[in-house]
From TrEMBL:
Modified positions (4-aspartylphosphate) in chain numbering: D56
Top-level taxon of origin: Bacteria
One GO MF term: sequence-specific DNA binding
Domain Sigma-54 factor interaction: 143-372
Keyword Transcription in annotation: yes
Statement: the UniProt record of this protein carries the keyword ATP-binding: yes
Domain Response regulatory: 7-121
Pfam families: AAA_lid_14, HTH_8, Response_reg, Sigma54_activat
Keywords: ATP-binding, DNA-binding, Nucleotide-binding, Phosphoprotein, Transcription, Transcription regulation
GO biological process: phosphorelay signal transduction system; regulation of DNA-templated transcription
Source organism of this protein record: Leeuwenhoekiella nanhaiensis
The protein, known as: Sigma-54-dependent Fis family transcriptional regulator
Length: 440
């Protein structure tokens, strides 16, 4: 029997109620997801297409109203059905104000549940959808972004995910190169095969060859038994060579041979082993400059860069910043505060003014810290000082040092309400020096 197209998420900490509702919905040919906590429900909502939410209200840690609030803010067109064993007039009114489509009191009959589900879904189908902002595509794991720059990255992922062409990912530190490598692997037809990451910059040169190619017993002191290398472990799948620019010339020579011959020879062996592996390499180094300095092999570069993906820096895709902030607020709000946190518009503007030299990794750290420091929502006071007083200046603008200093002093004074003592403290100069600079 063909399933109905709707997917229904059921959230209740009572397993008996969960199973009862799920059993009925399956009988009516709906596909269901189930969660015993709000945290679990949020993860399902993020990763799946859901057409109706059925939730209890009284649950430990985070209650159902918090979930309803989150859904209303992030999925405004998703209909919501409450089932509760503790009905009250207050809760009913609160539910109606929150946009809940239907409200059922436990115990309820099968017919009452069917009627409520049908009404909620029917009302949702009939309701005109509000135009929404462009959102990222669904199928790229942890990658967040709907900017033109990120859409170009996703288009390349689409083209390469189902073949084993060698791929080179470039970009500044903190832009998410491993996320892109994982998306290429896990969104393609080889997703069931292994994905093996190797940090070429984090392994001593003397051990990197053994890590990559494996070794035979007795190959060197301490080699007490045969061991597979990363290439053999990735058989049929993908090996991700992160920070490839840090590999020595000797390792580069062996890698070149692996790419040419499609085989590896473990240390201590003379017998090559055939491999079937997609190679993805990444670095934040300037390989062109390294080639000029003869610290990176030009022939290896051309072997690695059959297809190249350049990940833009965060400052070049700032329209994605609110989406990234939402992601980290959700992650760390649940982890540290057991609830969902918002960011005040003024604080978001501060984040938008900053140039983010550390890219997404730096943004995540800032949001994580702000979640820990804040009370009910992220405010400007919860952000680090170096963000609050950052100078808002286009990236390519060139100006004199004196003018830069003048603008920065004015910015700090504005931020401190013209409090010269506080401004001098932030600038780490005396009040006398500040007065002299203001006269100038």
């Amino acid at each position: 029997m063909q399933l109905n197209k709707e997917n229904i998420l059921i959230v209740d900490d009572d397993l008996h109620i969960l199973e009862l509702i799920q059993r009925h919905l399956h009988r009516w040919n709906y596909h269901t997801y189930r969660a015993v906590s709000v945290k679990e429900a949020v993860n399902i909502l993020r990763d799946s297409q859901v057409d109706l939410l059925i939730t209890d209200l009284k649950m430990p840690q985070i209650d159902g109203f918090e979930l309803i609030k989150f859904v209303s803010e992030h999925y405004p067109d998703l209909p919501k059905l409450i089932v509760t064993g503790f009905p009250s007039v207050q809760d009913s009114l609160k539910a109606i104000k929150s946009g809940v489509a239907e409200y059922l009191t436990k115990p309820f009959t099968r017919d009452e549940l069917e009627e409520a589900v049908t009404k909620a879904l029917s009302a949702s189908r009939a309701k005109p959808k509000k135009p929404t902002q462009p959102v990222q595509r669904d199928a790229y794991g942890e990658i967040i972004g709907s900017s033109e720059e990120m859409n170009e990255v996703l288009e390349v992922i689409d083209r390469v995910k189902d073949n084993k062409a060698t791929l080179y990912i470039s970009g500044e530190s903190g832009t998410g190169k491993e996320l892109v490598a994982r998306a290429v692997h896990y969104q393609g037809k080889f997703a069931a095969a292994p994905f093996v990451p190797v940090n070429c910059g984090g392994i001593p040169e003397t051990l990197l060859e053994a890590e990559l190619f494996g070794y035979k017993k007795g190959a060197f002191t301490g080699a007490e038994k045969d061991r597979k290398g990363a290439f053999q472990s990735a058989q049929g799948g993908t090996i991700f060579l992160d920070e490839i620019g840090n590999a020595s010339l000797a390792v580069q020579a062996r890698l070149l041979r692996v790419l040419q011959e499609k085989e590896v020879t473990p240390l201590g062996s003379h017998k090559p082993e055939k491999i079937d592996v997609r190679v993805i390499a990444a670095t934040n180094n300037d390989l062109a400059e390294m080639i000029r300095k003869e610290t990176f092999r030009e022939d290896l570069y051309y072997r690695l860069s059959v297809v190249e993906i350049h990940i833009p820096s965060l400052r070049k895709r700032m329209t994605d910043l609110p989406l990234l902030v939402d992601k980290f607020l959700l992650k760390y709000g649940l982890e540290y505060k057991d609830r969902y946190l918002k960011i005040e518009p003024e604080a978001l503007e501060v984040l938008k003014r900053y140039s983010w030299p550390g890219n997404i990794r730096e943004l995540e750290n800032v949001v994580q810290r702000a979640v820990i420091m804040c009370d009910k929502s992220i405010q400007v006071k919860d952000l680090p000082d170096h963000l609050k007083y950052a100078i808002d200046m286009p990236e390519d603008t060139l100006t004199s040092l004196a003018e830069m200093e003048h603008k920065y002093i004015k910015k700090v004074l504005r931020a401190t309400g013209n409090n010269k003592t506080k401004a001098a403290e932030i600038l780490q100069i005396t009040r006398k020096t500040l007065r002299e600079k203001l006269k100038d």
